[in-house]
Amino acid sequence: MRLTDMACPRGLTLSFLLASLALPHHGLAYKPLSDNFLKQVPSVSDAELDPTTGELLMPFLQPRAPGSEGHADIQDHLVQHFAANLPEWTMEWQNSTTYTQDPKDKKKKFVAHHRSNLVFRREPPWTRQGQANLLTLAAHYATPSVGVPAEYLGATDAAVSCALLLHVARSLDRFAAQMYKEMQELGEGGTVPMDMGLQIVFIDGAGPAVASKGNKDVDVSGSEGLAAAWEKITNPALPASLYGYPNRLNQISLLLLLDLLGGAEPRVPSRYQTTHWAYQAMARVEQRLGGLGLLTSKGASTGSTNPGAGGFLPDHSTPVHQLDLASGWATDRDDHLPFMRRGVSVLPVVPDALPENVGTLKDDGQHVDKATVKDWSRILVGFALEWLDMMEVEPQAPAVRRRRRRTPTAMMAAAMSGEE
Ligand SMILES: *[C@@H]1O[C@H](CO)[C@@H](O)[C@H](O)[C@H]1NC(C)=O
C-alpha cells in the first residue's frame, strides 16, 4: 500500500515498481511495534499540561491572533525550543501574503494578510535535497482575529494540538538519532522505506473555528500559502541512480492534521478512502495500547476490536467502501484542504463534533481533559514510531537486558535458587 499511496517518485522505473509490488507489504515498511515497545511509548505528564506552570502547554495558552504580541511570542518560543532541545532539526520559515476584500468596505480596499508558517524537519543525514519522504504532522498555532473574545485562549483551538506536536518531535528524536546512526554504520539508505524522516509544521492563520460560529470565512490562509509554495519549490535533479521527489509537496508521505483536540471523549471519523488504511493502523495502535491498560481516559479504546467498540477512532472496523465520506464538519474545512487539493495524502485527526467550549473564554487550560490528551500523546507517538519503522531500535525492557547480561555462573545460581 505504501508505495502506491505516495506520489510516484521521479526516476522510479517500471521494473523497479513491479519488483517492489511483488514484495510482501510488511517488508516495505509498516511494522507494528511489539508490546514491549508500546509499553515504553512516552506520554505527556500531568505536570506538563498544567495551565499555569506546565512547560509543554502553557506557552501556547495566550491570545495569539496574527500580528499580536502573543503570536510573536509563540514563534520565538518554537524557534528557541527546537534550537535548545532538538538541535538536529532544521528550522525554516515559510512566509506568504494573501489579500482579501472586505465586502462591507465601500471602497473595496484590499487587506493584506501576512502569514508565517514554521517548519521543522528531521531527515536521514545521508539524504540529499528531495530524497527523503516525510511523515508530516501539522497544527495551526494562531487564534482568530475576529469572531472570538479578545482574551480567547483557544486551548482546543489548537494549543493542545501544538503541544502534542512538540511531544511527538521530542519522543521520536531519540529513536531517529539511534536509527539513523545504525543505518549509516551499515551503509543503508537510498530506498523509499529507508529514507523516511519527520516533519512538524506550525501553521499560521486560525483554522476553521470561526466558521463554526456561523461565519463562512474559513481562515486557511497559512496552509494555502504553504501548500502553494511547496508545489512551486522544485528539488534539484538527482543522479539517475537515485530516486527523488519533484517538489516539496511530493515529499510528504502522509499529512496528519491535528485540530480541536483536548476535549473529553473525542470521536475522529475516517474521512478519506485513500488514507483509511493509515487510519486503521492508528486505530490498531489505540486498541493495543488500550488492551495493555495504557489508556486511561473515558472515551479511549479498552482494547476491543469489535465493530462498534468505540474509542477515539471508531471507524477501526469500517470497510473502506462503507465509509461515510460526508461525515464530520471538518471534512470540507480545515488546514489539510489546500494540501489535499494538490494531491497529498491527508489524515485529519480532527473530532467529528466541536469541543464544547471552542470559540468561548471557557476554552482554557482548566477545561482541557488531561487524561484524553495523555492518551492522544501515546497513540500519536506509537503511530509515528510504526510509520518510521522504528522496531529496529526497540529499547530492551530492563528484565530482558538483565537476563542477557547474566554470566553463566549467575544464571546457574539463579536456577538453583528457583528463580526464572
Ligand atoms: C518570516 O516571518 C517571521 C515572523 O513574522 C520573521 O521572523 C522571519 O524573519 C520571516 N522570514 C522570512 C524568510 O521572511
UniProtKB/TrEMBL annotation:
Residues 1-29 form the signal peptide. The keyword Transferase applies. Keywords: Acyltransferase, Hydrolase, Metal-binding, Protease, Signal, Transferase, Zinc. Coiled coil: none annotated. InterPro entries: Peptidase_M28, QC/QCL. Pfam families: Peptidase_M28 (PF04389). Its EC number is 3.4.-.-. Residues 130-182 form the Peptidase M28 domain. It comes from the Eukaryota. It is an enzyme of class 3 (hydrolase). Belongs to the peptidase M28 family. This is Peptide hydrolase. The lineage of its organism: Eukaryota, Fungi, Dikarya, Ascomycota, Pezizomycotina.
